[in-house]
Amino acid sequence: MQRTHVVLLRFADPADAPEARRRLESLEGTVPSLRSLHVGLDVLRGEASYDLALTTTHDGLDGLAGTAVTVQRMVFGNAGGKSGAGVGFTCDPASGERRLYLDFAAHAQGEDVVSGRVGLANAAGLERLMPPLYAELREVARRLEAAFLDAQDFEFTIEDGKLFLLQTRRAKRTAWAALKIAVELVEEGALDQLDRLTRRYTRHPHHYGHVSRAEQAARETRRYAEGP
After folding, report:
1. How far is CA 160 from CA 83, 121, 133, 156, in A?
2. Looking at residue 212, what is its pLDDT?
3. Residues of the chain with CATH 3.30.70.100
4. pLDDT digits over 40-69, tens only?
5. What is the domain class of 3-73 according to CATH?
6. What is the domain class of 84-170 according to CATH?
7. What values do phi and psi take at 86, rounded to 5?
8. How far apart are CA 79 and CA 13, in angstroms?
9. pTM over 0.85
10. How far apart are the first and last CA of the chain?
11. What is the CA radius of gyration of the chain?
12. What is the 3 state secondary structure string of the chain?
């Protein structure tokens, strides 16, 4: 059974689209299951249109339920003085303190941040450089925790003063930070069953050495919440 996939792309500089089209078309014949490949360029140049459309047809994908459409946009942290890239935590991963914790590099891409090729600013540095973007990131951190009911670490890019959130995942943290975060979520009512505190805290092997302390903290939290 044949399946068709469509990917729509928008570039920071539309002039890059022809080169992207050439590279994509060079892939034809290199993937055994790829039956056909077509790359179309935008000719209307409308504000709502995309610069490039990649359409592929595949054989041997019978297990898929239907047609997939992926919409992507390229963003660049090295697009000027109001651009940059970074990684952030909704809480301090060492202490669990509820504050925005991040590494940020102005006029840089994500690979520059993780490779150590450029100097990094912390949250205070970003606040000095781009106060509105810092405030927006704080709101992003709050909404991520509310959505996932746990501390998150996330990657972001700022392109010409506009924030793009690239991905988020459950944040790695120390054992005591995990306990502090869980207790605060219980106190805020985000976790409505207090026994979830212990399960959430002791889920991973490196926490097992602190299980008894986590259970004690959960009992203390329960007594505090229930009152005398």
Report:
1. 5, 18, 11, 13
2. 47
3. 3-73
4. 876 556 665 677 888 888 776 565 566 666
5. alpha beta
6. alpha beta
7. -170, 175
8. 10
9. no
10. 67
11. 23
12. CCEEEEEEEECCCHHHHHHHHHHHHCCCCCCCCEEEEEEEECCCCCCCCCCEEEEEEECCCCCCCCCEEEEEECCCCCCCCCCEEEEEECCCCCCCCCCCEEEEEECCCHHHHHHCCCCCECHHHHHHHCHHHHHHHHHHHHHHHHHHCCCEEEEEEEECCEEEEEEEEECCCCHHHHHHHHHHHHHCCCCCCCCHHHHHHCCCHHHHHHHHHHHHHHHHHHHHHHCC
Task: Show the tokens assigned to 174.
Answer: 């120390």
With pLDDT > 70 as the criterion, what percentage of the chain qualifies? 73
Give CA–CA dist 151/98, Å, rounded.
9
Taking the C-alpha atoms of residue 131 and residue 184, their distance in angstroms, rounded to an integer, is: 27
Cα separation values, 32 from 58, 61, 65, 175, Å: 9, 12, 21, 47
Ranges for all domains in the chain classified under CATH 3.30.470.20: 84-170
Which residue, among 64, 90, 54, 49, has the nearest Cα to 2 in the 3D structure? 64
The residue to which tokens 């994509």 are assigned = 24
79-127, pLDDT tens digit by residue?
888 999 999 999 999 999 999 999 999 999 888 888 888 889 999 999 9
